[in-house]
Amino acid sequence: MSRRERETMRRLLDAGGTTYAEEAGIRLRDKPSPLYRLLVLTMLSSTRITTDIAVAASRELSKAGWRTPQRLLDSTWQQRVDALGRGHYRRYDESTATKLEEQAHWLLENHRGDLRNLRPASRDDADALIDALADSPRIGPVGARIFCREVQDVWPELSPFLDDPLLEQARDLALPDDPDELAELVPDGRCAPLAAALTRVRHGLPGL
């Protein structure tokens, strides 16, 4: 690893290395509630809407107290619409209020309300995890990869999870395009901030 690569990594993480979960106020741990909140954030991020709005809407849903699938189901459709509106998630607020209910039912009925039941044993199980998550309403394969990028430091068996679009971006920055080599450049070994930073650069993060 060259000094230039280490300096590029430092600047990259300094500029964009806050995970989207952190930005949404989610203290991500291997517990049912924060994992569920990450799934909700993933759903909100899986529509054609800005990440800032998805993060703001996620905060509003958490502020309303809907931090587990059962608590979400205790809310009314109109309450969810109103919370999404406070987060400026207005373009898809009504359909998303319905999808949130469907997602909560999906999680309770298929995984007993606990995403830890999907935790992979190794990186070889990543595809199975993506397939399982893609069954969640409005997540799909792209959303499932968003979830994996964010959860990988909590589920280290999955790390480093840096999929092809992020590896292409790393190559554009003259960084290694191999996940393990990239991970070796991360000072604390946490790859979720690296995934977030590379995502932000793909979306036009300035200053690199």
List strands and helices in order, with pairings.
Blueprint lengths: L2 H14 L3 H4 L8 H14 L5 H13 L5 H5 L3 H10 L6 H19 L14 H9 L5 H12 L12 H9 L6 H7 L6 H11 L6
Helix pairs in contact: 1-12, 3-4, 3-9, 4-6, 6-7, 8-9, 10-12
Q: Kindly state the mean pLDDT as a whole number? A: 95
Q: Kindly, what is the distance between the CA atoms of the first and last residues, rounded to a whole number of angstroms?
A: 19 Å
**Number of alpha- plus pi-helical segments:** 12
Number-wise, the strands total 0
Q: For the CA atoms, what is the radius of gyration?
A: 17 Å
| Main sheet record | none
Order of helices and strands: HHHHHHHHHHHH
Instruction: Give the amount of beta strand, in percent.
Output: under 5%
Question: What overall geometry do the principal axes of the alpha carbons give?
Answer: globular
Structural class: mainly alpha
Residues in helix, %: 55-70%
| Poorly predicted ranges | none
